[in-house]
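Input sequence (321 aa), recorded before submission:
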Amino acid sequence: MGLYQFGTRLVSTELEICEHLLVPAKVEQGADGAWAITRDLCASGAKMATFVHEWPGVDGEPCMRLRQGRDTFHLDAPNIGTFVIDVLERTISIQCPSETEQTTIEHLLVDQVLPRCLAHDGSLIVHAAGVEVDGEVLMFLGESGQGKSSLAAAFQLSGQKILSDDCIEIAGSAGNVVAFPTYPSLRLLPDTLSRFFPERLATAQVAKHSDKRRIPVGRDFSPAEGTPVRAIYVLEAQDPASSDLTIERVPPSVGLVVVTRNLFKLDPTDLRRASVLLQKAAAVVSTVPVFTLRYPRDLGALPAHAKTIRAHAVTLGPMLQ
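Predicted structure, token format:
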């Protein structure tokens, strides 16, 4: 039974999980309270009449749909399979045909299912990239396709450590906000991969339905107490008439809306849990400054943009205490 770390939580499974996706937990840690993952090739899952919620993919079609049973949640990935989640027993049963590619299962597990399970536990899980710069974390939020992974890759080229390119756990209270990595990998499209990493790397396909390739970025996790968050940058589309990088601070009320919109949730209809996450997000934006970030989508200029963003972060005052 393998025991792994995902954010501040433990995951146990007998499945062979790619070592670039989940980091083995420390030996002295026990499995008590861990989320247990199994794969059931025979079960078809309970059939329920309606979907409670749907999450759209990049193409606008649902990439994940939620059904709710009496004691379980069913996350359906169209044409792939179902993840049956028992939040009381803390189990995730993967139900899919035997021919389903392992990479696709792993991709959905770390990008969709585990973040939502941790959010249901009460953790603040943000759809964001995170890089450690000078001992503090810079977070980059934005819709899929806005360039979070490419920007994270530019920071890596300058020697910075990537916490994740798509999912970060943040915790703390007003005056003390820290971040935790989830899975140590970087996923890039072929053009970005060839531009930033012209040498041949041992990459892997992210999923059958994606052209991205997964690049290992190391397995050195943050300290147990987390790493302080310096700033949150929200990637927005650049004005076609402008060729400059712009950074503008937004008021905490706007930052709260942006952060909340980018939170993972298992059941968006659960208003009680939504209220808890909203309060936690409010504590974050009362401490961590939030900025909009716009720049031309030019791969060649990304390393220079990363340098400019790093310089901007250095100018910020100390975190509130």
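Checked by second reader. The longest strand covers residues 227-235.
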